């Protein structure tokens, strides 16, 4: 990963600041966490955590010049062939940001479901709350309780990885950011 250049700049140019991890934290994850990985081509960038029973898609970015040509679907299909549940955090639809609706349509078109029973609210560095929806795809029957448990693992092992050193706080304490709605 270290030899590939430009991956963080690509993320910065597309994702809102509050959704980005620090580049230092991400570099540590790549070097030290056995599940955290990156695939980068001119067409796409995907950063994910490949756990034993599921894959968490941390960031997926298709080159703006090639969006709509099926590249994102091919990437998702390659992950589906691994036979594990796929989980992604997706911004809720915002009428003032058309990209949010496009991302939701992308995941729905690719067979993902929005977790109806999981509320997921985090705080940005300045303490402002923001909500994300959890979308998932599974090759077999998976309950939203299982998705919630897997998201707890994501929060503990990925979002909070050496977080006190990088942020001076836990950005995603699962007991605080994840709630079961029913």
TrEMBL record:
Keyword Acyltransferase: yes
UniProt GO MF annotations: acyltransferase activity, transferring groups other than amino-acyl groups
Record's keyword terms, sorted: Acyltransferase, Transferase
Keyword Transferase: yes
InterPro entries: Acyl_CoA_acyltransferase, GNAT_dom
Pfam family, one: Acetyltransf_7
E.C. designation(s): 2.3.1.-
Coiled coil: none
Protein known as: GNAT family N-acetyltransferase
Upper lineage: Bacteria, Bacillati, Bacillota, Bacilli, Bacillales
